Structure formats: C-alpha cells, structure tokens
C-alpha cells in the first residue's frame, strides 16, 4: 500500500480516484443477448447456458426434491449460522416498517402514505468460485417482510446442473420458492421480459460481473427498476492511535480479497500505526488462500496520513465509501460527521464482516461514490410508498380558492375547473 | 373517448397500452450538448441558450434585486395561495421524517439507520407556456426539510432574460437561493458536471420535455442520480353510480389539457353514467382555453365498462396509473385494493388538482407504468439512509462463530479472519 503523508487538498481528487467504469463497449453484445431472450425465451436461455457456461440445462427450475436434498446434505453448523444471521437481518429490517399516519393538513383535507410491496421482484445471485448465499438473505428477507407476492431467484448452476446446497437452503429458509438455474445476461433478460418458465418481474436486485451490470442498466432503461448502479466493492478505514493494527489489517484484507479491482483505503491521524498496519497486512496476507487476488488489490490501495479527525472526515465524505470503519476514540461522535457512506462500522469490535453476514444490516450498498445520493438496499427497496388523499366537501371549500388561483396562474384552466364545478354543485356525497 | 364494454381479459394489454417512449434517437444530439457543457462550461451554456432559446444571457444567476422585484410585482392573492400550499406540503412532508431507532439484534450488537440529506441537489423547472411554480414547492420543500446544503434551481428565462415572478417568489419562500436562467439539456449538463457559475450536484429532480428526459437518463448513466424515469402524465378514474358525472368529466379534462400525449382512462361499473360523462366532457371542453390540446388527448382516451369493482381494480393495478381517482361508494375500502398507483384521490371531493397544487401530497409521480416499482418524490428522495453498527467485544463473541462459519463457506477467509483476530486478542479499548 502506498503511503501519502499530509496530502494537499488539491491532491485529494487524484488520491480518491476510482477506476473508471464504462460498460458502453459491452452494450452491443449484451443488448443482443437480451433481445434474443426477449424473443426466444427459454430456448435462448438454454442456448446461452450451453455457450457460456458449458451446461446442458434440462428443467430450468429447481425442484422440491433438489431443495430437500440440499437441506439434507448441508453441514449442521452452517445451517445454524444461516438461521442466526436470518434472525438478525429480520429483526433489523422489520424495524424499518413504516406505519401509516393520516395527516390532516387542513380541516377536511386528509393525506396519508402507505407502503405497498412491489408485486414481482427478481433476485440475481452470481455463481463462480463461491456460493453467495449471504446475498439471498440480504435480498430475500426484506422482500418477504415487504410482502412481495412473487420472488424469483436466478443463479447459475455448475456444469452438472446443480446449485450449491447453501444457496438452496438459504432460499428455502427465507421463503423464496422459485429458483431458476440461469446465470449471466440471460438471467437478467429472463426476469426483465419473462420466458415460458421464468415470470417477468418489476424490479431486479443483486450483484454481478460487468456483463450482468450492463444488462441491468439496459433493462432499466427499458422500464424495469433495478436496486442500484454497481461498481467494485470498497472499504475505507479511519484509524487513530487507539486502533488495533492487527484488526485494521484484517479489515483491509477482507476487502482486498474480493477482487483485484477492490478499493481499499486507510486514513489515519496517527503516523505511528502505519508501519504496524503494514507489517500486519504482510503477515496476515501470507496466510490467505486468496492472497494473489488480495495482493493485486493492495497494489492500488492507499494509506493517507492527515492532520486530524475533522480533515479525515472531510476527505472520507468526499470519497463516499461503500463501507466505512471508524476505529477511533469517540467513534460515536465521529459517526455524526458521516455524510456520505453506505454503511458504517464503529469501534474496534465491528469488522465489516459482521455487516456482510450476520449483524442485521444489509450488505447490498452503494459503491463507486454513489453513496453521495443512493442508499443501500433496505425494506424501502421492496415497496412503493403510495400517497392517498380524501377531502370532504368542507375541506375542498377550505382549500378550493388556493387551488383555483394557482391553477389559473399556471394557465391550466381545466385543473381550476375541476375545483370550480365541485364548489358550485350542491352536496352529493 | 372510445367506449369498450366488458372487454375480455385478453384485450387488456392492448387497451392499457401507452405510447412507446424511446429517446434513443435523441441520444447523439443530447450527448453532444452534454459533452460540450462538460468541457466548455458557461460558454457552452450561453451558446446553446442563444441557439435554442434565442436569448443572450448576461449573468446566469438570478440576483437579489430580481428576487425583490418579483416579490413586489406578484399578485397578492397568488402569493397567499402559494403560502397556503407551502404550509400543507410542509406539514405532509415533515411527517415523513424518520427517527433513528437503535436496534439490538443480539446482546452487544447494535444497529441503526440514519437519514442523512443528499448534500447537493438540482431542481429543473421547465419554461414554456406556463410558469410551473408549483413544482418548485413540490421539490424545494422536501429538499429543505431533508436539510440539503446546496439546492440549485435551473429554469429558462424568456427572450428578455427574465424569469416569471411566481417562480422566483416560490423559490424564495421555499428557501432556494441559487436560481440560474438555464433551460433544456444544457441545464441538466450544468448541474451534472458543474460550470464556472453552476455548482455540480449529486441528484437532479424535475420534469421536462423529451430532450431533458434523455439528458437526465444520460447523466444518470454516468453516475448522477435522478428522481425517476419520466413519461407523459396520466389519470385513471374509477367511477360507479355514486359518482357525479360533471366532476368525473372535469377530472378527465384536467389531465387531458396537459398535452396531446396525456393518458386519460375512465373505468366504470355503471353503464348509465357513460353518456352523461361524455356529454359533460363535451360541454366543459368547449369552455377551455386549451381545448385543442385536450381534444387531441381525448382522441386516444378510453372508457372501459367492467363487471364489478374487483375487476376494475385488477385492471387498474395492471395499468399502474400515475393518478387514480376513486369516485365510488366505499372508496376507503376500494383504496385497500390499490397495488400499483402513484397517488390516489378518494371520494367525490378529491380532484387531482388538489394534490397537484395544495393538499400536501407530492405531484412528482411515476408515469408510464413505473408505479409498479417506483414511488413518487417524497422526503426519502432527498436523503440517503445510512446504516451504522457498533459491536461490543462481548457482542462479537456472541456472533463471531456465525460470521466465521458463513465466511468460510463462501470461501472468503480474510472475512473470517477479521473476526478471528478479534476473538483471539485480549480486550483493548
């Protein structure tokens, strides 16, 4: 990790720069796959599974027997861990439920807002080296709490046509019954347009590689909602002299192992910890199975020494990290200064892993600086908040002149007249 | 308006079809303007103002003297109306404030979520035939309640370089201090990238024509958040025998006058009201200044007769209207069946105009079927909800094994190790 001591403010933009994400070059090929899925449905899905994943798919949907087999085969300790995480995620997301309050803005003018579940949602879970069952909890649990009626999950199978048992167990425990063995761009297309097997959904959630990201952007343009724009995962650690260098190093490495493009940043006010953290990083890195990936991510990673916590927070708010770990004295007070971040981890005993898996918060978070304007996934992501209003005849009399005056000034006479005809007419409840 | 009696369910998709919106053809020209604004800043903004709006702009920003002049010149009745509307919108949106609750998901594992204002937001207010000062209330008020630090407003001036006094008065009353006389694609570019005069923002709100819509889509793709995708405005009225045909007709016309592409739909269970509504539409239309526009919108509009309220609501949920007016007996009970709509108006005395201007609800709503997955603008649109967590050493001991087991099963050993190093180490802090 490169160290920069007391950088000038003018250097910040360069030091905080992220890799440029541009999927424009992929748009043609991804668009062709989407168009084929839209037109040929399951046939196209099977063709691309063969072409890209070298798998000959029979039934696309996971059967009850496959779910049962997964449950029977999965390690008991892992089941218990998944159920513990599920409990915590449920508790935290249930507390996000909003209760409808009727607001009388004027006598006889009642307005309220009601959260209503998005009826049909699609969850994408990537395949690849690891089964990301934790993401099923993070997306499926709020979808169930919201009351989404149709929850569809797509995830690629292995070459033998099997889905990892932890994925199926997590889906089953969350209550996601419809799991399809489809990956990549064709999965996004299947959920966006529907096929003979896969129901069309209104909103698509979940991580993916650059092809999946591009596919989500393209279907979003054509009217299907998506969770948020995506980019490589990232962590920033703010540490002072009260941090434990071994913990800081472990947190930096846990981000670095995600991929060679992961962003890792350490901001510190304490020059004396820098060498210690670097020694710990080297020592812990040597023990990691994914050390090649982590080492590549660390090559682009930075340690920034700044003069005080206030300057550190200014710099971190400019960066807008997905994850922010605050290993400082008075961490609760420092938290008050956070303006731009996805999720914040306070104190020496709150590793990012806690939120990634089991503490209860969501791990689907805005990357790439999107934390300036976007929130992570929450219960809100699975509902629409519909407003309602009911005016009594007296209420309309109270507010009528205001509406008529404003509508006339905007040159919208029919808007005005919708009030005028009502004010003129005798009561007819 | 064409009448369809008891259409088969198989006909619904055709009857509920909207005009296809495709701004792909505009992308090159809009993209070129955005690129020029990004590169040349104010110079490009002035050049396009000259080219498209035939206006020679001196200072881009509205001065305190111009605000004062607007306030002095504006009609007192309109000022009073704007202040009444502002009060109601404030009351309704303040009630959306979320208070932070700390949730202890397990002993020693505390998680919470805190709404934090988006620091910099941009509001776009179109020019054209009418000054849309009501939209300033709808966007500016929640931005101020959220606590956005920098609120920038762009709106085109007239050929003399003046902005309508109602627009300036509304901006001033809401607390929006920075108003720029910039319209169209160049305004979206200026707010997305920043220029010498206009600050760069993180999220852009507001309506616009197809060029503005396309510009918002393009800057969204490059990382600037936008309020929601846009389409022509629309209303659906559900009416039974208890409706007042003159009121229904007025509501249909108030939507039709927006533009020739406005979508107007009447769904009814009462065959006897159809002729009456049509007569009222004809009579009221004849009195409207914008009757040409409204008449063109009505040509594409439909009256659907269905067998009962349950079928009506099924059809309306499939349509997902921006505005839904329920002029039925038991309208509160019918409201419970609403799944997809932007905003709902209940009873005979709740015209859409009430919500467009003054009742308190927001009028920036999802069109084009987006109500299946999107909400209208609310206080939520101006904040990010950031999650925080703080684990005690004991809390991490409680949850540690769960995290370790899950991380190991996902093949992420550094994630596991971030817990392990902490469980091993003696308490520090």
TrEMBL record, chains A, B:
Q: Name one GO biological process term.
A: L-histidine biosynthetic process
Which molecular function GO terms apply here?
A: histidinol dehydrogenase activity; NAD binding; zinc ion binding
Metabolic or biological pathway, per its Swiss-Prot or TrEMBL entry: Amino-acid biosynthesis; L-histidine biosynthesis; L-histidine from 5-phospho-alpha-D-ribose 1-diphosphate: step 9/9
Q: Which InterPro entries match?
A: Ald_DH/histidinol_DH, Histidinol_DH_CS, Histidinol_DH_monofunct, Hstdl_DH
**Gene Ontology CC annotations of this record:** cytosol
Q: According to the UniProt entry, what is the EC number of this protein?
A: 1.1.1.23
**Could you say which residues bind Zn(2+) here?**
255, 258, 356, 415
According to the record, cofactor stoichiometry and binding are noted as: Binds 1 zinc ion per subunit.
What reaction does this enzyme carry out catalytically? Answer: L-histidinol + 2 NAD(+) + H2O = L-histidine + 2 NADH + 3 H(+)
* Protein residues bound to substrate: 233, 255, 258, 323, 356, 410, 415
Q: What is this protein called?
A: Histidinol dehydrogenase
């Amino acid at each position: 990790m490169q160290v920069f001591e007391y950088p000038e403010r003018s250097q910040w933009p360069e030091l905080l720069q992220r890799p440029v994400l541009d999927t424009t070059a992929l748009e043609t090929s991804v668009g062709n796959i989407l168009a084929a899925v839209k037109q040929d449905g399951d046939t196209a899905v099977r063709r691309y599974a063969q072409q890209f994943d070298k798998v000959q798919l029979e039934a696309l949907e996971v059967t009850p027997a496959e779910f049962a087999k997964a449950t029977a085969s999965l390690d008991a300790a892992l089941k218990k861990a998944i159920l513990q995480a599920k409990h915590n995620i449920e508790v935290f997301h249930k507390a996000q439920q909003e209760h409808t309050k009727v607001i009388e803005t004027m006598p006889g003018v009642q307005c309220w807002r009601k959260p209503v579940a998005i009826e049909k949602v699609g969850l994408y879970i990537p395949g690849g080296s690891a089964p990301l069952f934790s993401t099923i909890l993070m997306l499926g649990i709020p979808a169930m709490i919201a009351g989404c009626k149709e929850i569809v999950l797509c995830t690629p199978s292995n070459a033998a046509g099997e889905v990892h048992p932890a994925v199926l167990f997590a889906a089953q425990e969350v209550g996601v019954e419809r799991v399809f063995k489809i990956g990549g761009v064709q999965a996004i297309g299947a959920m966006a347009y529907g096929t003979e097997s896969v129901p069309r959904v209104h909103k698509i959630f979940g991580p993916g590689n650059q092809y999946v990201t591009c596919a989500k952007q393209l279907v979003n343009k054509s009217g299907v909602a998506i969770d948020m724009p995506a980019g490589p995962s990232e962590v920033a650690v703010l540490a002072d002299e009260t941090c434990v260098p071994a913990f800081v190093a472990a947190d930096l490495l846990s981000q670095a192992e995600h991929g060679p493009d992961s962003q890792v940043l350490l901001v510190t006010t304490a020059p004396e910890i820098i060498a210690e953290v670097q020694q710990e990083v080297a020592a812990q890195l040597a023990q990691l199975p994914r050390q090649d990936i982590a080492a590549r991510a660390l090559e682009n990673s930075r340690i920034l020494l700044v003069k005080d916590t206030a300057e550190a927070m200014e710099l971190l708010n400019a960066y807008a990290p997905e994850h922010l770990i605050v290993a400082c004295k008075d961490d609760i007070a420092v938290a008050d200064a956070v303006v731009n971040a996805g999720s914040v981890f306070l104190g020496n005993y709150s590793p990012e892993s806690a939120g990634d898996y089991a503490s209860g918060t969501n791990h689907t978070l805005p990357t790439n600086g999107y934390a300036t304007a976007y929130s992570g996934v929450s219960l809100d992501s699975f509902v629409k908040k519909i407003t309602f209003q009911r005016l009594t005849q007296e209420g309309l009399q109270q507010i009528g002149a205001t509406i008529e005056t404003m509508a006339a000034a905007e040159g919208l006479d029919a808007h005005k007249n919708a009030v005028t005809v009502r004010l003129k007419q005798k009561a007819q409840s």
